[in-house]
Structures are given as structure tokens and as C-alpha cells.
Amino acid sequence: MSASGPTLSSEYASATALQIRIDAHDHHSEHPDDPTGAVLSLLELTGTENLADIGCGDARFLAQIITGGHRGRVVGVDTSPAMVAAAAAIPGVDATLADAEHLPFADEEFDRTTARHMLYHVPHPDVALREFRRITRPGGHVVVTVNHPGTCAHTRELVARHARRYGLDPVEEMANSVTSSTLPDMMDSVFGNASVHRFDNALVFASPAPLLRFAEALFSFCGVDPDSPHRAEIRAAVSAEINTWFAAHPGQAWRDPKGYIAVVATVN
């Protein structure tokens, strides 16, 4: 394990853990969960806008926009070379390696700017928000999504408890204090307006195996490096506790509250 623990680079060196988390939300949400659809509805696209998605991940969001017939320029930005490569493989996506605090675009270059579930990882989120405003034309929209504080806290604490037995704790790079409680005021401070749309839900697991897969996909966020010499032991302990819980609660499901907000700002 590195001296500093997990990093964003190690977490997003491949899309595996991200895909597991996405699958969990797709298949184990208590209520239908469509964060992509939620953002698309708020963007009010006509099909011709130039759009930048900051922290695009594997760009499935942009792929859906293009598949829907969008004709404007579509740009995906990420700090991970693996994610940029995945985005570049999607026809029609202009993939760019850059960080949110130093975007390589001209002023007012885009009609729409999105930043979905990524602002937690930015060292200076206020700087990133100002960059989003700078690259978006007057009258254009910026949509930012972040989770509620304590999202999936039950599962995260389960992993963190076993990680702490080996002296492992989350590192600052993996998350800052941006949540649904703090983002609206931050957006209002930068843009002078902020429209908040709230989405509440929960993950519900009826059996141990999918919960263990999801829990392991949270390891980096709990300080467990992919190369940690204790990773196998921590996984075994988490698995044992999960199995014990289901054995002690026959017929019950593991329920972990979650949710997020989408904040829309218009550039004046």
C-alpha cells in the first residue's frame, strides 16, 4: 500500500468498482433510480447545444445523449486516463484529460455544463464552480449533482470499521465536505441563483452476495488501497459480518438510505 493510501488515480484506473456501484444502484434501489434521466430533464436540451460533462467517468451519460440524437458538440472531461480512453471510444464524444479547476476551454464555450457526482473529489470546489461558470455562455445552464451526507452510511461504516482495525482511514483526496447540505449555498454564491431538486431513496439488499460486492466497491473510499496487504483479511471480515447479519435477520433485507440533489444554475 502507498504511504498516502488510496487515490482517485488508483480508484479510477479501471471502471470495475464504478460499474459495480452503478449496477447496485440500478438493481437494488428501493424506488426506481434514474440519475441520468433526472439530469437530462433539467438540461432542457433541444439537440443543438454544446455540452461539457466534467468528471465524465466512462461517459455513459454522454453516450445516452448522443444516442438520443443530439447534434451539438459533446465533450467529456476527466482526470483519469482510463476514463478518458473509455469516453474517447464513444463515437461523437470529444474526450479531454483535465481537472475541474483548470479547464482547457475558452470563456462561454458551452451552452450546458454538467458535473455529476464528482465535486466531492475536487480540492477546491469553489474554484471548479467558477470554472463551470466561466466556460458556460450567458443564459446557459450548469447542473451539478452531489449525494446527501451519510448516503449509504450503513455499508460504508461496516467497511470502515474493519479497515480501522488495520490503521486504515479515508484520505482527504477521496472526498471533501461537499454534500446536498452545502452545495446549494455554494452554487448561489458563485452563480447568484440555485434551483434545488431533491431525490431520496435507499439501497435494499435481500441477500449477502450483492451487498458484499457493493461493500467491496467502497473499499477505496474507506482507506483500503487496491494493493493493501490487508485487503483480503478486510474482505473476509466484512463478508463474515454480512453473512452473520442475514443469518440473524431471516426474511429481512439490508436497507441503506441514500439520495442526492441536482442543483441548476443559470449563468447571468
Automatic annotation (TrEMBL):
The record, for InterPro entries, names:
Methyltransf_11, Methyltransf_Superfamily, SAM-dependent_MTases_sf
* Cross-referenced Gene3D superfamilies: Vaccinia Virus protein VP39
Per the UniProt entry, the signal peptide is: none
Q: In this record, what's one Pfam family?
A: Methyltransf_11
Q: Keywords, A to Z? A: Methyltransferase, Transferase
Biological process terms from the Gene Ontology for this record are:
methylation
Hydrolase: is it a keyword of this entry?
A: no
The Methyltransferase type domain sits at: 53-144
* PANTHER family, A to Z: METHYLTRANSFERASE (PTHR42912)
GO molecular function terms listed in the Swiss-Prot or TrEMBL record: S-adenosylmethionine-dependent methyltransferase activity
Name under which the protein is recorded? Methyltransferase domain-containing protein
Going by the entry's taxonomy, the superkingdom of the source organism is recorded as Bacteria
* Entry annotated with the keyword Nucleus: no
